[in-house]
């Protein structure tokens, strides 16, 4: 009898016993295969002189020519720079925001006030990006916006913020924090809820105040969760919110607002250069893969916390 027969028997028995669980998992597997793995077949057009009339299979191979075009294109290089700068601002200001919010909620003792405040800060996450962009455009309008109205109270001239390149990044990052910080705090609140209460009881006996307990107990206890979320966030560095950018930017702000995803959108869907856009998307995915692998390796080496 082959030595692997026992293993296959156990595997068959396991599937027979737990088939309901795998049946529930099947729709998700099909979704991944159809919408994430099957489209990978089209990545080869990044290395071809693609023509919609010839199709993917019959278009001639041209090697790395599209990648050479990418890195000699000033607009693409500018888009990479903008993506990195916006992502850096999001990491510096956006990543700590839900952590701070969760720590603040944890210190609120009045249950009704806490629930009301949480509901208010969670709501923006469930609002469409189109509506969020409309609110931002209205708020910063030079004629009827509340921001320019306040500026007018001080006798200053109105400013059309969304047409000035230097204002795009602060507005974009601030909007992202407002929209996602509340919902993002749920993960950290869940981690805080898992902290052993006996640690706080011991700290109270030792005379620690709330501030000391937060720094010495709460933050160290949720540090693994923070590191996992940071690794995931670093993996999304090149994925700046495409919807919000494309709704808020305009040619006047391309200098600071044009990111890799919007450049790919213009090249692929507006200009019809699908092969060049595919090369840009493949480069984007490769950079994200390298970043998440590097962040995971460093985290595992220095903190023993990692995604895998």
UniProtKB/TrEMBL annotation:
It is a multi-pass membrane protein. It is found in: Cell membrane. Keywords: Cell membrane, Membrane, Transmembrane, Transmembrane helix, Transport. Gene3D superfamilies: MetI-like. GO terms for cellular component: plasma membrane. Coiled coil: none annotated. Residues 80-295 form the ABC transmembrane type-1 domain. GO terms for biological process: transmembrane transport. The chain crosses the membrane at residues 21-37, 86-105, 126-156, 176-196, 217-235, 276-298. SUPFAM superfamilies: MetI-like. PROSITE patterns: ABC_TM1. Belongs to the binding-protein-dependent transport system permease family. This is Sugar ABC transporter permease.
